[in-house]
Design a protein that fits this description.
Low-confidence stretches: 1-9, 646-652
Helix content: 25-40%
Largest sheet: 7 strands, mixed
Strand order of the largest sheet: 5-4-17-16-18-19-20
Mean pLDDT: 92
Strand content: 15-25%
Bound molecules: 5'-O-[(S)-butoxy(hydroxy)phosphoryl]adenosine
Length: 652
């Protein structure tokens, strides 16, 4: 992108100061920025010192062979001990680690003492099955407590886990198992989704046809449905775990020992196995969980409403909250089962104080209408978080108002699977929030926006988001492919980490994320971000959600084509509305950003992690047959959109 980005045209002047009560007792104050810039490594050392180390490090950062970082060199620790045992040893064994809520309404309360026993049993069972330090273990599970237990048992043994989201296909599972050469799989018969038991084990059986090196499959019984059984390979969790001793002596692992591999989807290319290691990762997630969510382990009830199969779940359901001794809610199912009030019922039931979720869900709640959350007492909430994509200003304001009762700050947190933990976010006790802005790099993180040449852009300018300095929870490489690691992240700009996102700095120097750089459109020589046009559309009260693509156009190079979902069930579009929306965007962003076409659609194509698949919409807009739809959550969505095509308006 260039300076021509329509940066400051989207006029967003609303500001929300931190609540005085929160600011007065915030875990982190404004001083943190100064402290970190005075001595960044000393700042991260203090963050690492919050953990329990068996051996101290001798060097904070070894960056002698960039981009291959080593953090806390020589230090040793055990992640599971840090997340579980040390809280029990400190007399907090009775504290609840998880309030788990199954979709059908079953519940389990798991204390830190319970978790310690279960993790030790599972570690003993894995050892008995022949899992050794360094072996990769694939985990393909629903959102049940055993998933956390399995991850921590692997971490305890130093066997890197590789969690595959339970919604992924057997193909996705087998490619990932092959890529990291895992010989063990942990799964379950199934889980509950939208009111039904949905099976997982058959996908494992299918995947393993092409993974001959897998020796054992450990199966948790969740739904009780029938499963095919391969004797000698398959073992029931309750047969091998329950009988084990709850004692297990944990070994301290090197700070740079691999903790896990998590594959990023990669919409076109082969998925990348992102490698995270022990000491730096745990430092990053525990510190940012403390700093950004202002966690008070004694009183807060924390809920990351995401799946453990994504990095958000790894960092902010499992490792961050547990390292801090916090109490979390974990929910198995979807927000609409048995009805659209389910999340708010859960918030009220467990008196959730901090909620962390994605803009895509927030926009879905907007579409359903504010009457639904209004039926529930949500007064326990004190802080709200957003992650996964840019949050449109209207969605931010709606979230703050109708979920947060106008009193809860919203932290818009930018990060990636690769960064391991949050990099850019407001600090809830310090920052006056701007709807739609992720604001500033956290203390100790050095972010910038640069132009094509890698030069820092001035305030008011737009370009590529980069990170200038290594950080503890950074990926160490792509599993088995150092070259690709260098090429993907460190080659576009010399010495800078290239995130792949477009961003702009406003006149105060605050950061606004603009989506993946691949999603930037070039209209008559102007770079226009899909995010900005989408936010302009969503700022019209009739629009719940919008997706924008650039379609090739003989006169303008690319022309803007917008797909919108209207607010309220059954709302219909029409010529008048379409021209109103085109006008609305032109008014908000300038005539150059007026969409050539606006199509009212019932749904948008999303990946299973909730990201809009603009590539498919572009196929529609350019009248091509659809590309690969296998990562879509719901493949019927594209039929629904194609049916709508005749109503599209394109005259000017
Ligand atoms: C990409 C990373 C971070 C955990 C979930 C996604 C986008 C993420 C934000 C945000 C704008 C965001 C970026 C990023 N993204 N958070 N707050 N504002 N964009 O992890 O699947 O690795 O995706 O998600 O484009 O690069 P991921």
């Amino acid at each position: 992108m260039t300076k021509e980005t329509l940066s400051n045209l989207l006029k967003e002047n609303r500001r929300f100061d931190p609540p005085p009560e929160l600011a007065a007792h915030a875990n982190v104050t404004a001083d943190a920025y100064a402290e970190a810039s005075a001595d960044r490594l000393a700042f991260w050392e203090r963050a690492a010192e919050r953990l329990q180390w068996d051996e101290p490090w001798t060097q904070v950062l070894d960056w002698s062979n960039p981009p291959f970082a080593k953090w806390f060199v020589g230090g040793k620790l055990n992640v599971a001990v840090n997340c579980v045992d040390r809280h029990v040893e400190a007399g907090r064994g009775d504290k609840v680690a998880f309030h788990w809520e199954g979709e059908p309404g079953d519940q389990r309360t798991i204390t830190y003492a319970d978790l310690k026993d279960e993790v030790c049993r599972a570690a003993n069972a894995l050892t008995e099955l022949g899992v050794n330090k360094g072996d990769r273990v694939a985990i393909y599970m629903p959102m049940i407590p055993e998933t956390v237990v399995a991850m921590l048992a692997c971490a305890r043994l130093g066997a890197p886990h590789m969690v595959v989201f339970g919604g992924f296909s057997s193909d996705a599972l087998s490619t990932r198992i092959q890529d990291c050469d895992a010989h063990f799989v942990i799964t379950s018969d199934g889980g509950y989704r939208r009111g039904n038991a949905s099976a997982l084990k058959p996908a494992v059986d299918e995947a393993l046809k092409s993974c001959p090196d897998v020796r054992n499959v450990l199966v948790v019984r969740r739904t009780g449905q029938d499963v095919d059984w391969t004797e000698g390979r398959d073992v029931w969790w309750h047969d091998v775990v329950d009988q084990q001793s709850a004692e297990h002596t944990a070994e301290a692992h090197d700070a740079e020992h691999p903790l896990y591999v998590m594959y990023t989807s990669g919409t076109t290319a082969k998925p990348k196995g992102i490698l995270h290691t022990t000491g730096g990762y745990l430092t990053g997630v525990s510190w940012t969980h403390y700093e950004v969510f202002d966690i008070k382990p004694e009183t807060d009830i924390f809920w990351t409403a995401a799946d453990i199969g994504w990095v958000t779940g790894h960092s902010y359901i499992v490792y961050g909250p547990l390292a801090n001794g916090a109490t979390s809610v974990m929910y198995e199912g979807t927000p609409d089962t048995p009805d659209r009030g389910r999340w708010w019922e859960i918030v009220n039931k467990y008196k959730v104080t901090i909620l962390y979720c994605a803009p895509t869900v927030i926009r879905m709640f907007m579409k359903w209408g504010e009457d639904i959350p209004a039926k529930y007492d949500l007064s326990s909430l004190r802080l709200l978080g957003s992650v996964g994509e840019p949050i449109n200003p209207e969605a931010y304001v709606w979230y703050r108002e109708f979920i947060g009762g106008g009193r809860c700050p919203v932290v818009d947190t930018w990060w990636q699977t690769e960064t391991g933990s949050i990099m850019i976010s407001p600090l809830p006790g310090v920052t006056a929030g701007k709807p739609g802005a992720a604001m500033k790099a956290l203390p100790g993180v050095v972010a910038d926006v640069v132009d094509d040449q890698g030069q820092s852009v001035p305030d008011g300018g737009g370009g590529f988001l980069v990170l200038r300095e290594p950080w503890p929870s950074m990926l160490r490489t792509i599993w088995g492919d150092d070259e690709r690691y260098i090429k993907t992240y460190w080659s576009k700009f010399d010495g800078l980490y290239f995130a792949g996102d477009g961003a702009k700095k406003d006149s105060d120097g605050d950061l606004w994320l603009l989506g993946r750089v691949d999603d930037v459109m070039l209209v008559s020589g102007h770079n226009i971000s899909t995010t900005e046009v989408e936010s302009a559309l969503v700022s019209n009260p009739k629009v719940a959600e919008a997706a924008v693509v650039g379609a090739s156009d003989p006169t303008t190079g690319q022309a803007i084509v917008a797909f919108v979902i209207l607010r309220g069930d059954g709302a219909e579009g029409g010529d008048e509305l379409v021209s109103e929306l085109r006008q609305h965007v032109a008014k908000a962003l300038g005539p150059i950003a007026r969409p050539r076409q606006v199509m009212v659609v019932p749904e948008l194509p999303k990946t299973r992690s909730g990201k809009i698949m603009r590539r498919l919409l572009q196929d529609v807009a350019e009248h091509r047959s659809l590309g690969d739809v296998t990562t879509l959550t719901d493949s019927t969505v594209m039929d629904l959109i194609s049916e709508k095509l005749p109503t599209a308006k394109s005259e000017d």
